[in-house]
Amino acid sequence: MAGKFITFEGPDGAGKTSVLKAIVAKLTTVYGKDLLLTREPGGTDNPIAEQIRDLVLSPAHPEMDARTEVLLFAASRRQHIVQTIKPALAAGKLVISDRYVDSSIAYQGAGRQIGVPAVTAVNQFAIDGFLPDKTIYLDVRPEIGLERIQTTRPDEVNRLDMDALAFHQRVSAQYHELAAQNPARYIIINAEQALEDVIEDTWQALVSYLNITPREVEL
């Protein structure tokens, strides 16, 4: 693959949406049309994966079985890889994805207590060993993340946000385990800082990794 694949991960309320908006604006000045922002579940120009997203995140389906959820996320991810991510990388683009396989391991494996080995196995079949070059992890304690959600977007709570605090604590602990297991891939950002500081720390980490020079950024 000619391009680079970077994922953004973090527990609910970590501020990924706000951070990504600012970071993508900066990266666009450097990469232009060679930058692709996508997301999971779903994906850019990917109707199959997007339809699965609508189903799995809908608050209208609280009865959804936990293993069904795992399989749906994995199915959406496979389509995302094949139809969106790999073609963009082959074209030499920088691909930024809001969530990827680590989310399933943390949320379904640990959060849903299905088991990390089982969820990892299902997703290994889906991704076939395809992992990102770097993962930006926005780290925030679960209590703070949930408080932010209730304060800033009470009308946009999805089915996963509705789970108990213990669920989100398990998710956070598993993310930290993944970071410890993959120190070369993970870049941990303190997301409990002021938003502008989180954005700056994230940007500087990417500047270093992507070898972006100051004159390339026209902001």
TrEMBL record:
A Pfam family of this chain: Thymidylate_kin
Binding site for ATP: G10, P11, D12, G13, A14, G15, K16, T17
One annotated Gene Ontology cellular component of this protein: cytosol
PANTHER family in the record: THYMIDYLATE KINASE, UMP-CMP KINASE 2, MITOCHONDRIAL
Entry keyword set: ATP-binding, Kinase, Nucleotide biosynthesis, Nucleotide-binding, Transferase
Stated name of the protein: Thymidylate kinase
InterPro entries in the record: P-loop_NTPase (IPR027417), Thymidylate_kin-like_dom (IPR039430), Thymidylate_kin_CS (IPR018095), Thymidylate_kinase (IPR018094)
Record-level GO BP terms: dTDP biosynthetic process; dTTP biosynthetic process; dUDP biosynthetic process
CDD domains attached to this UniProt entry: TMPK
Enzyme Commission no: 2.7.4.9
Annotated function: Phosphorylation of dTMP to form dTDP in both de novo and salvage pathways of dTTP synthesis.
Family under the similarity heading: Belongs to the thymidylate kinase family.
GO MF annotation, one: ATP binding
Coiled coil regions in record: none
Reactions catalysed: dTMP + ATP = dTDP + ADP
